[in-house]
User: Fold these one by one.
Assistant:
Number 1:
Amino acid sequence: MVSPRYLCHRHDIEDGEAKGFTFGSGDSRWEIFVVREGEALFGYVNSCPHIGTPLDWVPDQFMSADGSYILCATHGALFEVETGHCISGPCAGSNLKPVALRVDDEGAVHLSAPDPADSEAH
Ligand code: FES
């Protein structure tokens, strides 16, 4: 059995901030990001539902100025941290694709499946 893919420790992400992760390269490149709110973590595919661009222009800059929402830097869409639901912008009403995470007792954060493509939460 292949163990789930390790991403980082919970405390490698500042409270209220996010961190991006890239897998593979070329056509098989696959990006996700993880947002931390207190001790809670939320993972999403780094692809805006508007036109599919990554949300961060500057690496790991995924949050709105006040830190309350996930922000797409391309056209300013805002997404709820807990749900990935878009509440403002050109893709309002749509959702980021969630990625299932697993956090162990020591705070190590893993994808819940070894292959990122298998880890999308449903
Ligand atoms: S690409 Fe994200 S709002 Fe347009």
Note: Strands lie at 6-9, 18-23, 30-37, 40-45, 69-71, 78-80, 86-88, 98-99, 101-103, 108-111.
Number 2:
Amino acid sequence: MRLFTFACPMCAADRQRFSILSALARRPKKLCRGCGIVLRSHPSIGVYLLFLLYTQFIGLIAGLPLIWAYMEQQWMAMAALWVAALLLCHVPAMAMHARGTICRDKVDPDRSYVRAKKQASTHDP
Ligand SMILES: [Zn+2]
């Protein structure tokens, strides 16, 4: 099951993923390996808001043990709590971006809204 990877919507190059460090951003960017176009995730504001609430919940749960570990100078417990909290926040973010809408970062420069000029008609009077 592909949870963290996606295919480029332009060239269908498969097995691409957003980096784990950029996953917390609302619209992380990724350079396609196939066509070289910059892609970005485009999650809806509701999904991203739910994700932010989830990260706040994780921070709330991990906060008190982190304070305890700091007060007791349990540095290994503190590091383990940091790693667990970061993994619990970044890994779902990677899945959210990979499974959501992915689009071009910038509009295609070759795209034109101007209608093509009509060809000179051969049956003019
Ligand atoms: Zn591509």
Note: The mean pLDDT is 88.
